[in-house]
Structures are given as C-alpha cells and as structure tokens.
Amino acid sequence: MKFFIDTANLKEIQEAQDLGVLDGVTTNPSLMAKEGISGKNNVLKHYKAICEIVDGDVSAEVIATDFEGMIREGEELAELDDKIVVKIPMIKDGVKALRYFSEKGIKTNCTLIFSAGQALLAAKAGASYVSPFIGRLDDISFDGIELIEQIRTIYDNYGFDTEILAASVRHPIHIIKCAEIGADVMTGPLSAITALLKHPLTDIGLEKFLSDHAKTNA
Ligand code: G3P
C-alpha cells in the first residue's frame, strides 16, 4: 500500500519524505488555506515546492465546478510538473472532466467519494485514483472502512485500473484496516503515519537492552 501525506505543510511533507516511506502527497483547498496559501500564483508556486520535495504523485485540486473551468485549471496544474495529479470533485461535470483528462493521458484523483456508486462511476470515467473519505463517513456513523471493502470488491470484479486512495484517514487503525482490505493508497496526516511506529513494549524492550548493555560495558 502506498503512503501519501494529506497536507500542504512543507515541513511535514519533508519530514515524511525523510522517513523514507512517502509515496506522494494529497492536498485540497482547505489544506492550502490552512497554510495561508492564497492567490493563483502563490498556489501554483506552492505546488511546485511540494513537487520538489517528493518523488511520487501530488494531487492538486481544481476550484472550478463547471466542465470548461475544470479543464482550464486542470491543464494548467498538469503543466506544472509530471508529478501533478488533477483532483476533480465527484459532480456531473467532474465525471466529464475525468473522461477528458483520461483520454489526454493526464492523471486524475476523483475526490469527495462517499458511496460505492460514485466510485464505480469515477472508475468508468477513467479516474486514476478515487478518494473515499473514510473519516468523514465515520463522523456521521457510517462505516468508512466498509466502503473501502465494497469498492475493492467492485474494482476487482471488473479489473478496473483505478486505484483506491483511502482519504480522510485519521489514525493508525484506519491505515491498518485499509492495508488489510487492500486499498492501493492511504492518505493521512503525519501523526497517523508516525503513530504506526509506536508500541510500549518496543520502548520498554529498548530501555532494557540499553541498560543491560551499559551494565557490562561500564
Ligand atoms: O484527503 C481528504 C482529507 O483532506 C479530508 O480529511 O480529516 O478533513 O476529513 P478530513
């Protein structure tokens, strides 16, 4: 399973990259706003800066919600760097835009997926990735992980190439469950990735190893 980091914070992206486990980055307008990035030129510059840090795909979201606008913005984003994946919302014009970009060989990530039907439609339109938001489903008492299972089954039934990018991942259990099901990618905050490191018995065990070593090597 590929690990993407879900942030526009350059420091966190660098930290995940330095850990040596990072396969890509996802962003969205809220994450860009959180970093105080505004204005078209600054936004484009920021995507460039992200692309310089990471080796893998970088999802950059369009703001337009009409077909022509999405195409215009998406083409501009895709020209920035080969790593850019154009992120398109799951709306009617978005589905048309997915088909358009797919035929042009430009990678896409269909975002705001909350149902298996939406994921099926995005795959049929040729999306490179679909982003089911599991945390936000959990927030309203729907099982986000169950949606990942459903999409996995559907894609496997028909051999769709679209990759399942589990998004809105909030904690390490989400990551582990996604890996068990066979999500292709998970995107989450740095805190969820580094939480995978932790086990109290590891800390206790290391402390004991070091103190035993110190006793005989004083
Ligand atoms: O990848 C989607 C993500 O940015 C949404 O996460 O935590 O705002 O639901 P969250």
Short description:
By secondary structure, the chain is an alpha/beta fold. It is globular, with a radius of gyration of 19 Å. About 55% of the residues lie in helices and about 15% in strands.
Can you tell me about this structure?
It holds the Pfam family TAL_FSA. It catalyses: D-sedoheptulose 7-phosphate + D-glyceraldehyde 3-phosphate = D-erythrose 4-phosphate + beta-D-fructose 6-phosphate. InterPro entries: Aldolase_TIM, TAL/FSA, Transaldolase_3B, Transaldolase_3B/F6P_aldolase, Transaldolase_AS, TSA/FSA_arc/bac. Its EC number is 2.2.1.2. Its main location: cytoplasm. The protein is α/β, with parallel strands linked by helices. The protein is built from 11 helices and 8 strands. It has an 8-stranded parallel β-barrel, surrounded by 7 helices. β5, α6 and β6 form a beta-alpha-beta unit. α4 packs across α5 and α8 runs parallel beside α9. The radius of gyration is 19 Å and the shape is globular. The N and C termini lie far apart (44 Å). The structure holds SN-glycerol-3-phosphate.
Which terms summarize this structure?
218 residues; alpha/beta; 11 helices; globular; binds SN-glycerol-3-phosphate
User: Which strand order does the major sheet show?
Assistant: 1-2-3-4-5-6-7-8
- How far apart are the first and last residues' alpha carbons, in Å? 44 Å
Main beta-sheet annotation: 8 strands, parallel, barrel
Which ions and ligands are bound to the chains?
A: SN-glycerol-3-phosphate
The secondary-structure class comes to: alpha/beta
Residue share in helix: 55-70%
Average pLDDT, rounded to a whole number, is 97
Overall 3D form: globular
> Roughly what fraction of the amino acids lie in strands?
15-25%
H/E topology pattern: EHEHHEHEHEHEHHEHEHH
Total DSSP E strands: 8
Counting DSSP H or I runs of 4 or more residues, the number of helices is: 11
Uncertain segments are: none
The gyration radius over C-alpha positions equals 19 Å
